[in-house]
Amino acid sequence: MVQLVTAPARKTRRALPLLLVLLAAGSPVAARADPAVGAASRELAPIELPQVRIDSVDVTKFPNVRILATLLDKRGKPVVQKVIKQVQVLDGQRKNHAPYAAFALGQPLGGRKDCKLQGFDKTGIATDVVFVVAGYQDDALRRGSLGRRLKEAVIAAFKPLAKTDRANVLWYGDRLYRFVGLKGRTGELTDIEDSRKLCRAARAEALAGGEVTGAGPADKEHPAPAPGTDLCGLTGNAKSIVEVVKGQQTAFEGYFPRLFGLGAPFWEHSRYCAPPPEALKGFGEFEGGNATRRASQRDELRAKGETVDFETSAFDEALRLLLQDGKPTARKAIVLISDGRDGYLHDLDLCRASPPARCKAAEGAQRKACLDDFLKQRLMGQQQQFRQRAETWIGTARAADIRVFSVGLGTLGAGYELERLRVLAERTGGTYRLVDKEEDLVGAVVATMSELTAGLAIDFAHQDPDEVGKSLELKVAVELDPAVVTGETKLTSAVAIALIPEPAPWQQRLEHAIRAALVAVQEAIGYKLYVLALTAIAVLAGLFLLLVGFLLVRAAARKVRG
């Protein structure tokens, strides 16, 4: 079963919640031991379907306006345009105001030529997307059928992408991997940290805009990259990524999933109740001599100003990839296919076997209660850390117009872990889909991609731009064909957009004349004398206003006495 939660309109979202969600048992020990996992997430209210949602409004060419909207049917899948009977763009405040634009069966009413209704695929708007995929060493992923279905879901996610779309995949365990187009590295996903220097050089070459020198061999299916292409960034060569995912031999490795990087660094001994028996890939065993040697290496790297391993997360890298390489005109998204888990997989078992010092003296039920309280406090600290980081992530994503879509692996994640995925999606305008059955995973990912790549673009020219003022409040009303769609057929969504009105021609001429006069005065008398003159004028103007105020107050006082 797949449950959906989506965000309201992007300009009307509520504040970020506290996110200290624990399971009903009240204990993280119980949460991880519960085979059902995700019980808390099942209490989340599903979205009301069908629905229409305004994803974005472009007013950069005002009074020309473009609205991008998503319509989901009762199954959570995008509505095809042929079942849409009517579309109206209305004033968000005035109920009796005439529609800004109206369409019937896809055609503008009133014979208006400045209105157009079309699907995303007809607009030429590209999509830039990064997939973040759980790739750690869980038995269900490594030996069970879930790992195979996860690969199938990632492969299916690339099929809806058009030639103008670009993507990359970020596969995380205790190391972070992504597709890199550099020569000799296109046959497998590349470790982000091991390739930082190579990718830094590739990015510098891309920013220079010249010919790409580090690309692998080109053929019909793998054309040579265009000048200025970042070979470590987003790529339009989806086939290469699909080939890598299909043949990836080290798809599910590592006991330390680095999705969000919560808690102390993974190499910090104080993070664990005892040294973990598993090795951290690229770090080795957690024994004293190795830890000392690694600490010295980290200090040397910091002294050189270089990046230290294990101090970033998969989500940080996905955001960075879109911020660096995402096109300003593209629709940008991160698709999380994950259980939300972060940290050492066997943390609970390790603490049961080696309780913290404060719990060692206790016995039986008292020891268990002490351990549960210790783990609960640590979990709450990590959730508080996630809340703080999420505020930064969400603010950054919204400022860069990046939406997060999450597909939660409900068969793996605990409720509080899946909640992290929901919050990131809900607060950035994306959709959260919770998958409780393995066989539903591919369908949930396909539905997510359909929502991202399918939808409506509504273009119109505002007929009364002088009435707008400093903001524009819009409401989109859609009526579906009742002969085709069962259930609710009338859908609405509203959003408010801040505007910077273009000055009238006479205002522009006046401003230009004043600016030219001030520049001429400055050139004639010199900059220092110019500043002194402006200061003197400002002081005299202030004194004049004070005098006028005093005279007005005195006149009012005399009138009252008289």
Task: Explain the layout of strands and helices.
Blueprint: E1 2-6, H1 28-33, H2 39-42, E2 51-58, E3 64-72, E4 84-91, E5 101-104, E6 107-108, E7 116-119, H3 120-123, E8 127-134, H4 139-142, H5 145-158, E9 166-172, E10 176-178, E11 190-191, H6 196-208, H7 238-247, H8 288-303, H9 314-325, E12 331-338, H10 347-353, H11 357-360, H12 364-399, E13 402-409, H13 415-426, E14 431-435, H14 441-453, E15 456-461, E16 471-480, E17 490-498, H15 505-525, H16 527-561
CATH architecture descriptor name of the domain at 64-120 and 456-498: Sandwich
Kindly provide the radius of gyration, computed on alpha-carbon positions and rounded to a whole number of angstroms: 29 Å
**Tally of helical runs:** 16
Q: Main sheet: which strands, in order across?
A: 1-14-13-12-8-9-10-11
The portion of residues forming beta strands comes to 15-25%
- The average pLDDT value, as a whole number, equals 81
Q: What is the third-level CATH name, the topology of the domain at 64-120 and 456-498?
A: Immunoglobulin-like
Uncertain parts? 8-44
Oligomer: single chain
Give a quick account of the main beta sheet: strands, pairing sense, barrel closure: 8 strands, mixed
Distance from first to last alpha carbon? 83 Å
The counted number of beta strands is 17
Determine the structural class based on helices, strands and strand pairing.
alpha+beta
Shape estimate: globular
The first-level CATH class name of the domain at 64-120 and 456-498: Mainly Beta
